[in-house]
Amino acid sequence: MTAVEFTNQVQEISVTLRPAAMTLTRDADDARDLVQETLLKALLNRDKFKAGTNMKAWLYTIMRNTFINNYNKITKRSTKIDSTDYFQYYTTDDSFITYNQATATFMMADINRAIAGLNEDFRKPFVMYYIGYKYLEIADQLQIPIGTVKNRIHIARKELKKYLKIYSTN
Question: Going along 63-105, which residue ranges are E strands?
Fold first, then answer.
């Protein structure tokens, strides 16, 4: 097979490589790069292709292997951890503290008290929304405009946030 015939066949098949590259990479730019790298490797290694065999399968194999090699390089590069930073992070971060059931009980009691402390006009739409009602359903059931429902839920959230700021993580 001449170099021109080989190049023409590679060009014809390259169109079918793009969807497979997209499936592998899940990113349009990365897929284009993968196809380009595959075609470059195929053209550079033309002498390794055996005439009469399936060129499409050969190109797909090059593409798959290129993807796997690139993926392995990326994961190896990103998994190196400096153990001193690792231990320092996990020993000083409070988010890894395990709380017992008593803490959750106190929190729930505070949340329930805060909700009970809301004005009835705000509490009712908020509780309905919390248990799963949609804005339109709440408006129909309470016979108030949907904008009022949204406003009351918003105000209820602000009040609860103010009352429960001791539990804020920020």
Answer: none
Question: What is the per-residue pLDDT across 71-124, written as a single tens digit (0 to 9) for each?
Answer: 888 877 766 555 555 555 555 555 555 656 776 787 888 888 889 999 999 999
Nearest in space to 153 (alpha carbons), one of 170, 163, 139, 168 = 139
Size of the chain, expressed as the number of residues it contains: 170
pTM of the model: 0.46
Looking at the structure, do residues 108 and 60 belong to the same domain, yes or no? Answer: no
Name the burial class of residue 96, with classes exposed (0-12), middle (13-18) and buried (19+) by CB atoms within 10 angstroms of its CB: exposed
Percent above pLDDT 70 for the chain: 85
Predicted local confidence at residue 102, as pLDDT: 72
Q: What is the residue range of 49's domain?
A: 3-78
- Say if residue 26 is in the same domain as residue 65: yes
b/e per residue 16-37 (b: at least 16 CB within 10 A): ebeebbbebbeeeeebeebbeb
Give the Cα separation of 140 and 98 in Å (integer): 43
Nearest-angstrom CA–CA distance, 69 and 76: 11
Q: Is residue 107 located within the same domain as residue 52?
A: no
The verdict on 122 and 69 lying in the same domain is no
